[in-house]
Design brief:
The complex is a heterodimer of chains A (74) and B (273). Chain A has a single domain, classed as Beta-grasp domain (Ubiquitin-like (UB roll)), CATH 3.10.20.30. Chain A is mostly beta strands and 74 residues long. In chain A, strands 2-1-5-3-4 form a five-stranded mixed beta sheet, with no helix packed on it. The longest helix of chain A has 7 residues. In chain A, a hairpin with a 2-residue loop joins β3 and β4. Chain A is globular and about 40 Å long. Chain A contains one helix and five strands. Chain B starts with a helix and ends with a strand. Chain B has eleven helices and ten strands. In chain B, the strands form two sheets. Chain B has an eight-stranded mixed beta sheet with strand order 5-4-3-6-7-8-9-10, with helices on both faces. In chain B, strands 1-2 form a two-stranded parallel sheet. Chain B folds into two domains: 52 residues, no CATH class; 204 residues, Rossmann fold, CATH 3.40.50.720. Classes of the chains: A mainly beta (74), B alpha/beta (273). Chains A and B meet through β3 and β5 of A and α5, β7, β8, β9 and β10 of B.
Chain lengths: 74, 273
């Protein structure tokens, strides 16, 4: 299935801003993160088709996944 | 009071009361500068220092700001700018909460750090700074760490809370405390070129959603650090949110997160629904 992966902020460094990528049916957000070497501990907000989602969420053909890094500084 | 009102009427220039009259009025009528500032606004006059706030903020709005109390949790990168802007905006009471003292690595970004304040409590520097900007503003310095245990006590009589913390678990405690006390919370966080802002009203759980994936430790700021400009941007957005909440105007970032990328210069408005 084809998933559009959008990365934000520091996650773009050495990766990409937006890319259409091929994944097996049933792939989760966490597995997409693994496929592009995003440490789970650095992941903040995740969105699927502009809706808030969790890391174990299964993706479907044509989904648009957005991943933001965890920011905690002040 | 009648004498004071007559004095203000006699000394107002148009509807503006100059600072020198505010100071003289306090001395002549045995009032604090804060009491005089409130009296000026209640009479429909404007302290001259706020003349450039118009037409953005009405005299009635300026009175609302003056009668409000805003707690700033953390007086570092975000907190220093937040306190500065709240004081200049005319918020009457600012509760500054931070257990730390200034260290050399704060100098690259924290407004209240100077070579003179190194080694001194951050909240003392905040009180001193606000005293220089406007002694009518009551800055309450509390050199303590915020936590779930003392939260309700620290936030007593507070209208709005600003999250300027650097710890995710304490942020989550703050969000829960504000929720329980029914206080709106303006959240901000930074790291490197990046930041985000969100405003949470009781029951909305925005901060819990933003950090829903968090398990332990810090965010990417640990690797990226924090340059001078990111806290200034995010703090200013937070103060705009505070102003809107107090004034009851505009559209705060409720159930949304504004993600800021100063490297790509992109702002993304993310729904947290």
């Amino acid at each position: 299935m084809r998933i559009t992966v959008k990365l934000f902020a520091s996650f773009r460094n050495g990766r990409f801003s937006v890319e259409e990528r091929e994944y097996p049916v049933g792939t989760t957000i966490g597995q997409v993160a693994d496929s592009i070497a995003l440490p789970h501990s650095e992941i903040g907000v995740m969105m699927v088709n502009s809706r808030h989602a969790k890391i174990d969420r299964e993706l479907h053909e044509g989904d648009i996944l957005a991943i933001f890094p965890l920011l905690g500084g002040g | 009071m009648d004498g004071l009102i007559a004095y203000l009427r006699d000394h107002a220039v148009g509807d503006l009361v100059p600072w020198s009259c505010q100071v003289d009025g306090a001395r002549m009528f045995g009032r604090t500068l804060s009491e005089i500032e409130e009296a000026i606004l209640e009479q429909g006059f404007m302290p001259a220092r706020y003349q450039r706030n118009r037409q953005t903020i009405s005299t009635a709005g300026q009175l609302k700001l003056f009668q409000s109390s805003v707690a700033v949790i953390g007086c570092g990168g975000l907190g220093g700018y937040v306190i500065e802007e709240l004081a200049r905006l005319g918020v009457g009471r600012i509760v500054a909460i931070d257990p730390d003292i200034f260290e050399e690595h704060n100098l690259n970004r924290q407004l209240l750090t100077t070579t003179a304040t190194l080694g001194r409590p951050k909240v003392s520097a905040a009180a001193e700074r606000v005293g220089l900007i406007n002694p009518a503003v009551n800055l309450v310095p509390l050199q303590v760490a915020f936590g779930a245990a003392n939260g309700a006590d620290l936030l007593r009589d507070v209208t709005v809370v600003v999250d300027a913390l650097d710890s995710i678990p304490v942020r989550l405690e703050l969000a829960e405390t504000c929720d329980a006390l029914g206080i709106p919370l303006v959240h901000g966080a930074i790291g490197g070129w990046y930041g985000h802002v969100a405003t949470q009203f009781p029951g909305e759980q925005s901060i819990q959603k933003i950090y829903g994936a968090w398990k332990e430790g810090k965010g990417v700021e640990q690797r990226l650090g924090n340059p001078s400009f990111t806290p200034a941007v995010v703090a200013s957005l937070q103060v705009a949110e505070v102003a809107k909440i107090i004034l009851g105007e505009g559209e705060p970032l409720r159930r949304r997160k504004l993600a800021i990328d100063l490297l790509s210069m992109e702002f993304h408005d993310i729904s947290l629904s």
